[in-house]
# Entry
Amino acid sequence: MSETQTTDTSRVAVILARYPRRDPGDLVNILHDLQAELRYLTEPAMQDAASYLGLSPAQVYGVATFYHGFHTEPRGEHTCTVCMGTACHVRGAPRLLEQLERDAGVPAGGTTPDLSLTVEEVSCVGACALGPLVLVDGEYHGHMTGERLSRLVNELLDEERPA
Amino acid sequence: MSGRLADPRALSRQREALAAAREARPRVVAVCGGTGCRAQGAMKVFEALRAEVGAHGADHTVGMRATGCHGFCERGPLVKLLPEGILYQHVQITDAAEIVERTLLRGELVERLLYEDPVTGERYHREDDIAFYRHQQRIVLRDTGQLDPTSIDDYVAAGGYSALARALEMGPEAVLEEVKRSGLRGRGGAGFPAGRKWEACRNAPGDLKYVVCNADEGDPGAFMDRSILEGNPHCVIEGMAIGALAMEAREGYVYVRQEYPLAVEHLTVALEQARERGLLGDAILGSGLSFDIHVSRGGGAFVCGEASAMMASLEGRRGVPHRRLIHLSEHGLWGRPTNVNNVESWANIPHILLNGAEWFRAIGAEGSTGTKIFSLVGMVNNTGLVEAPMGMTLRQIIFDVGEGIPDGKAFKAVQTGGPSGGCLPADKLDVPVDFDTLVAEGSMMGSGGMIVMDEETCMVDVAKYFLRFLASESCGNCTSCRDGLTCLHDLLGDVTEGRGTRETIALIEELAETVQATSLCALGTSAVNPVLSTLHYFREEYLAHVDDKRCPAGVCKALIGFSIDAERCNGCTLCAVRCPQDAVAGEKKQPHTITQELCIKCGICKDVCNRDAVLVQ
Amino acid sequence: MDVELIIDEEPVTAPDGASVLEAARRAGRDIPALCHHEAVPAIASCRLCLVELRRPGRDWTQLTTACDYPVSAGLEVVTDSPQIRKHRAMNLQLLLRRAPDAPVLRRLAARLDVKEPLFAPVTDATLQDCILCELCVRVCSTLGYNALAAIGRGGHKHIGPPFGQAAALDCVGCGSCREACPTECIAMEDTATTRTIWGRTLELLACERCGRTITTKAHAAAMAAETDLPVKSSELCEVCKARITSERLASPGR
# Structure
């Protein structure tokens, strides 16, 4: 096993140990904790969770893939999320999402090949008065315009490129 | 102050002491720390104000408090100065010095930070005088703008947990009676009488019962539950403890959607504090009630707002609803009697216990007692959270509280009840907002989302938007919902992209009927409300799309064109520079033109034009 | 304890705990129910087994699925009506979109007089002709192997091994999923010595006596583990086992 893998296994073990009852009912909470630690749900992490809880890998994977909050693929260094809630929609969110997809070169849900940026949409983060809203790495940017978004994205993409 | 409170008398004594301490120092700078204001830098403003207060040596006389959501998110960052209730809006770090020097120390108002009425232009300094707040009746939200949600002392000082003390005195049956008589109906969407649900749970056989708070708030455009949990989590804890007493439950769960990390954080802190003080856990306030609450996070699924799907998620499974032939009150979580109520429902309970069922019944309307929190958003001047007595009309909420549509545009429709609701047109503005009237008009109250739309909103596009949302949120169990909603979305795509005919509309109506009639859960059965209500009230708009291939609101890309008004264009070239497709041609200082074949209708040219020269037809 | 209910105006007796679908079928009604199998829990996915029900004392009927509705005394059930046919036909149209050539759906289309498809067939499904009824998942789970998952949700839901693996590693190759599948969309290929299913190739167990395929060795081992019987006892096919038994019974003095 590589060094990264052994470190990951022990990180996973520490998290699983927080749930001593080994109750399958804790699966969703466990997946949250694993994802917070590893940035996305890796296959080994889900396998370990399955054995720990007495579930089959298929059962764990079925649960993980049901919920849009869980990611089973590597994530970009940065995440740019356009809120597509109704209030943001009537204030022009779809155009912002299209522009973001164009600028980043990946569709919503996707990550740029160099893993610098993940593009996402979410249906409502509850800051409707500030719509249209874009989140960058969890930070809220309200009253977003096409222009500002373009600048933001270029900053994020350029960051990873050599000067 | 800390340490277990041994009994209700200890709680009263502590409340008196805390209230007295606060009265002795009435000057408080309350900065809104709700998610909306934080997004606009509120916490930095808080730190700046605190630093200024310190710099003037006033730390001992001025309290600093980061509160929950004030409800008026559009005007954030919001700062309220107590005890006068002076409200400053759009406060920046650079305003901190002036606020402290002029207002706190010299009693002068900083005019430019005062709320300016968008219609009359008048400036108001007291929150209670502002139109947005004046027409509201803030009971549940009263404390969210005044308390520090991470301070249990603030909550106790304001009377917190005294309802629980009263409930302990009354006993379970009396508490149940009070809730029944109040007429409280669920605030999450279904509007079921809470007292009846509580009674069914209380009477269900079994000694292990659960009370659950459904904080999955999935309706896009709704954020009242978020604000309550972030801004005053203790009121929900107290409500649930009272419910646990009445239903003889020992364990509770709060199921919070994963998109609300601040709510989870504040709730977790509040639970710890309540336990430390003996208000949660074993022998609460020295009584026979033992009750504790776990926080469970959702994984990101709108369908988990449905109670049986939520329970599946709580049980670590895929959030698929199941048919409920036996009520969840008898057979719920892990097969045990479970009572599920929404955040706002639980938050009403302490007020009902303290003020009595008669007081609650006197508010609101017959059959819909009490207040309801609405999230008034979209194309309206004053957007934010509005708590109003049931029975207020749509017109009053949108035009008195909301002060109407910005930029002089015309009201077109208001969408209520989230994706399960419908769109109501202008001639329905005088409809009173209560559970039953809205249903009769083809919509519903739902969780209180109220999205205002103006003449530039295309109702066909709105219907398509909701179908896209619901199709992606469908759990996928039922053919009718899973595939029916996808097909309905595709058919609406035909309409908005110019491929629709009258037959398309007929098929939409036929398919919608089957989705409604044969889906297992409310997501499926109510998913067709947006399309059916818009077809009912805005049929001409649909017909324009299919007969004339025209989008009257100027939204549907395939049916509109962007062009430049040569008379208004001054040739500044800004649009040409910004156009991502190089579709704009023109010499400097000469009117520009858009090449239609290259135009992707992204709208950037219209955004950047300072001369309003870009036309959309 | 038996329950008496009324189906299409005729009294019918059914065991307590039976579903309305089971009771109606026993009474000879041919209600289509593609996602139903008596050995696994009902999930009412296909939405074809619609009936109209009225509970005693109520004055309204409801249109609902029969496979997940338990019988009760005095329940009135109608199994055929214009409303039932209309909605059944529409749900069938939605299923045809996923499996346009599946024989069971074509037969149903003929019965319901559904001639033209209303919706273009899906082209991006990971498993062609799968109607997402999850019978394979439920059967695999009931048998204890849990090798298959329903992955994702909504229109993008699909069935398969976890982690996007090419092979279902917990699959023992018993083939029960294939037998249960209503549209016959699960591929299984047997050679003389191997079986390939869900991306796995497993060794087959042949009958010692006649050489016929019994099942896979993995399946036999799994069954032996569950029943405490030695693996050896399953190396005879059912036909040969029966023959040996009757031979032994026939020979005197044993």
User: Anything to note?
Assistant: Chain A has a mean pLDDT of 89. Residues 3-66 of chain A form a domain with the Arc Repressor Mutant, subunit A fold (CATH 1.10.10). Chain A has two domains: 3-66, 78-159. The first strand of chain A starts at residue 78 and ends at 83.
